[in-house]
């Protein structure tokens, strides 16, 4: 499956790439949540190809907004993760595809066609960036850790979420090396997998934002939980906390203050 999957994702990458360098008309799904015809075109292409080639899988995808369909043998797609970056010409945007068999992680692919970076992981086989093995960082001090986060679209309307974002930054910033907000959850997870960030957390993500990245991070030796420190459910949990494993407890303690 993996060769065919990557071939299709790379073809879809051409659509994203063409859009990235074109003038774009932007529509709003919500105050802060953007969509372009390229998000729709990449998703349509992937859905068509996957349903031809991988008939035993159903498809859950961002622009179809169908996270309520049965999750079992499923391919979960974010056609353009980091749409705001895509619209503004910031080359930190990717196609994210997570494949699950019997609800269990199987294959994760995150592909940034602008930088030509393809992250791939298959369960029990490790994680790779453009074919080269990647591993999480070995840093074990939160104070020396470079962290990443994201700001939920809900912070535009929901003052409780906004306050929570600010409170967590207040707690974390004095206790880490620094904190980044790059704007693509799938790539953020891959950057933890690659050892660039020691940890990452965010609230209100959807399954398509994380379905591939969590497989890639686990296979690179990382740890992912919800904010309570127990098993992360991408369909239900408000927070994802993802680290190299070494700083996980320290980060959880600070986030939960
Ligand atoms: C976005 C992310 C971003 C996150 C947003 C959103 P989209 O995905 O990956 O980092 O902060 O909440 O989910 O909408 O560009 O596919």
Automatic annotation (TrEMBL):
Cofactor(s) demanded: Mg(2+)
Any one GO BP annotation for this protein: signal transduction
Annotated Mg(2+) binding sites: 62, 78, 80-81, 209
Lineage top rank: taxon: Bacteria
Amino-acid biosynthesis found in the keyword field: no
A Pfam family recorded for this sequence: Inositol_P
UniProt KW keywords: Hydrolase, Magnesium, Metal-binding
EC number(s) reported in the record: 3.1.3.25
This protein's name: Inositol-1-monophosphatase
Catalytic activity of the protein: a myo-inositol phosphate + H2O = myo-inositol + phosphate
GO MF, any single term: metal ion binding
Enzyme superclass (EC): hydrolase
InterPro entries xref list: IMPase, Inositol_monoPase_Li-sen, Inositol_monophosphatase-like
Lineage, uppermost ranks: Bacteria, Pseudomonadati, Campylobacterota, Epsilonproteobacteria, Campylobacterales
Membership in a protein family: Belongs to the inositol monophosphatase superfamily.
Organism annotation: Aliarcobacter trophiarum LMG 25534
This protein's record includes keyword Magnesium: yes
